[in-house]
């Protein structure tokens, strides 16, 4: 019951943010976009510092104190040893989900010609921080959103082949960096901590929950309460299905499934004609949530509701 109340309060908060942003005029919306980008720029700078200097300082301190903290915590080991930037967020993947939205918003400002040079630096710094999260899910969603938009708007682009080549080279280099730096966790399919294996386990468990609670679901916020009853094989416990559709269906049944599909469709239909950058920011976030859970984490999910409001 407490879980359901907590999730309901969270949803009401998200709706409130949406309606507040929706009521803003165009000048206020532009100011909000700038504020979001400035915040993302600060977080990106901190994430870059964290990667190059912060983590090493933490490791040196733990060694000096003879601490076995890293040995006791697989999460700490993944973050500190593999050097995945988290900024001020709970995990690299959540930071990645936030940054892909902020990146497209920063591009919308950089495209305007009446701004100072700092706005042109913002996309570069944000994308650097995004790379340093080493979040393959965030990068896949970023690339997928860009490809979808490119295909839908192909005729309106100038220098198509040059743009496609530059984009391909850039993405290939980023993917190579992430894969090499996390190859043990990404490529070893026998490792129960492998990201792909874990997600497949989460999806199988979610499918089992849906099969037994097809109509009504298990209630908002209760996925993790029943997860262990449906868990197959090894892997870690989880609060989320790491798939927005499966999670929503498992918790809220058919009604929740229809609601989330309608919400996604309504956003895509509205944002595509409103602004290509709002469309890409929201679409990348949606795609990310087919393999992750940032929609359900307020630190990132709240910004998606802002983007929905901005697209109105």
Task: Write down the overall mean pLDDT.
Answer: 84
Strands, count? 0
**What's the quaternary structure here?**
single chain
- Give the termini separation: 34 Å
Tell me the overall shape: globular
**What is the strand content?**
under 5%
Radius of gyration: 20 Å
Query: How would you characterize the largest beta sheet?
Result: none
The arrangement of helices and strands along the chain is: HHHHHHHHHHHHHH
Uncertain ranges: none
Number of self-contained structural domains: 1
By secondary-structure content and strand pairing, the structural class works out as mainly alpha
Give the helix level as a range of percent: over 70%
Give the number of helices: 14
Please provide a written account of the structure.
By secondary structure, this protein is an all-alpha fold. It has one domain. The chain is 76% helix and 0% strand. The protein contains 14 helices and no strands. Helix 10 crosses helix 12 (244-274). The longest helix is centred in the first third of the chain and has 39 residues, at 26-64. It starts with a helix and ends with a helix. The mean pLDDT is 84.
